[in-house]
Amino acid sequence: MTKKQNESELVKLSAIDEDILTALLGRELYGLEILNVLNDGRPIPIGFGSLYPALNRLEKKGLVSWHWGDEAEETGGARRKYYKVMALGVTALREVQEYRQQLAWRSGMATPGLEGA
Predict the structure, then answer these.
(1) How far is CA 39 from the centre of its chain?
(2) Which single residue of 7, 45, 75, 89 could bond 85 by disulfide (Cβ 3.0 to 4.6 Å)?
(3) What is the largest CA-CA distance in the chain?
(4) Kind of pairing, strands 29-30 and 64-68?
(5) Is the distance from CB of 72 to CB of 64 less than 8 angstroms?
C-alpha cells in the first residue's frame, strides 16, 4: 500500500463533504455558485453557515484548495474565493462512492438508489 492510498483511507467525509466534492468535480466555483448547485432540487437547502465550515474542513484535510479571483466591477470590487477539488479529494470521493455502490449490491439492489423502495 502506498502512502497516498493510506492517506485517502484515513479521510472521513460527511454527507455535505461528499456533496461539495461532487459539485466541484472538474470545475472551480465560488461560494454562491456551490450553494446554487447543491440546493437545486434539495429538499432542505443548506446555507452559508453550513457551507463555509465544510469548505474549511475539506481544505484542512487537503481535499480542496482555493484561490482569489480577480476584482470585478459586477461584484462591487469584492474578490471571490474559488474552490477546486485536489487529487486526494477525488480519490477520497471515489472510494466513498465505490463503497456505497458495493453496499447497495450487497443489499440485493440491482442498481444503487432507492428504486422500488
Answers:
(1) 13
(2) 89
(3) 55
(4) unpaired
(5) no
Cβ–Cβ < 8 Å for 16, 49:
no
Terminal-to-terminal C-alpha distance of the chain: 38
Using left for φ > 0, alpha for ψ between -120 and 50, and beta otherwise, residue 93 falls in alpha
Give me the pLDDT at residue 107, please.
80
Q: How far apart are CA 117 and CA 112, in angstroms?
A: 11
Mean pLDDT, consecutive 10-residue stretches, the chain (117 aa), reads 49 94 97 97 96 98 95 72 97 93 81 55
Per-residue pLDDT tens over the stretch 25-38: 999 999 999 999 99
Q: Among 98, 91, 89, which residue's Cα sits nearest to residue 60?
A: 89
How many angstroms separate the CA atoms of 68 and 22, rounded?
21
Order across the sheet with 64-68: list the strands: 29-30, 81-85, 64-68
